[in-house]
Amino acid sequence: MPFIMLAVLIDMAAIGLIIPVLPGLVGSFSTSQADQAYWYGVAAVAFGVANFLASPVLGALSDRYGRRPVLLLGFMGLGVSFFGTALSDSLWGLIAVRTLGGAMQANAAIANAYVADISAPEERARRFGLLGAMMGLGFIIGPVMGGLLGAVHLHLPFYVAGSLTLLNWLYGYFVLPESLPAAQRKPFTWAAAHPVTSLRKLAQLKGVGPLVGVVALSGLAQFVLYTVWVLYNSFKFGWGPQENGWSLAAVGIVAVLVQGVLMGRLLKHFAVHKLLIMGLVSSSLAYGLFGSATQGWMMYAIIAANLLGGTVAASVQSLISSAADSRSQGQTMGAVSALTSLTAVVAPMLGAPLLAAVSDLPRGDWRMGAPFYFCAVLQLASLAMAVWHLRRHRRARLHLA
């Protein structure tokens, strides 16, 4: 666990570095706020499409050749994306390098498969929580650094992020051990690596069912938030890179607190499926409050209040991972990543136009929260699917008994 946690920490810090400044870089090629929102959405869609198509392939390759070489490929892909973005002198050049980076980057899925390799089923929820805590810690360090560096020069965070990925590649090459024994590997087939096939197999896993819908809807809500967060705060509250960087750091602090400290304790008192329900309720309320906030400080209060929202990802990943056998963890986590990437494709198509439609409203206007109200609806639908699945699963167990 310490090896993979450090790799994920460096990875997420590098990603977090660019979040406060990427919209500004897109804006340097744009002529209006609506134009900026539109092209930022296009760049996000390009990354998501490439990641959706490539994630199950990389996941299946990790089942065949091991996790370590695929992680190294992912670190390299991120480096290409960051340095290429920094050197881009046009919108289309920026979109091209983001597409290439998306195709080579499936680190989150492979890291989850790595943890599943080395963990007993009853340990996975807590350990997925620890991995999430490292991601959160990366989102404390990265956005703050990105905001501060972006205030110096808009391209500087991308060079620093690229340097971090090179450091991670060296760490992975010389230090990170392989987690998948040769005896547990299985042949690679293009049919199994096809994104549609992998999603179908994910849905057919016994005990998973509508949880696939929970991943899709909650993931879509989360990626709409990611798409609009920086621009929304800039348009509504007049925030710059530093303010946005600090707000993302607050999200990271809560993630570390919940997944690194509270998750293990919560699991002693609540079953994984109950944590999932409580997390979905909490995050549904938080989305609605984000949209209705009238002053910037309120965003911090909502982030702090939404502690249970940080348990959703680890809980649902644990339930799905436990339904897969030990030889298919890479393919299963790759399929989950592909589904998440598909929501990352759809989210900018919905979130960016919603934000663009309200971008000319006066600062502080409650209607500017339209993208977050949409997120709240999605999360409520996800909650309904989770409740339905868990009730059906409980009835099936009682029937067998």
Structural summary, described in words:
The protein is mostly helical and 401 residues long. The chain contains 17 helices and no strands. It is globular, with a radius of gyration of 20 Å. The mean pLDDT is 81.
Structural class: mainly alpha
What ranges have pLDDT less than 50 throughout 5 or more consecutive residues?
A: none
Q: Describe the largest sheet.
A: none
Number of DSSP helical runs: 17
What is the string of SSEs from the N terminus onward?
HHHHHHHHHHHHHHHHH
Helix-strand layout with pairing:
Elements (H helix, E strand, L loop, with lengths): L1 H17 L3 H6 L5 H33 L1 H21 L3 H14 L2 H11 L6 H29 L3 H19 L15 H4 L1 H10 L6 H27 L3 H29 L2 H21 L3 H10 L6 H12 L5 H30 L11 H31 L1
Short structural description:
This protein is mostly helical and 401 residues long.
Features:
single chain; 401 residues; mainly alpha; 81% helix
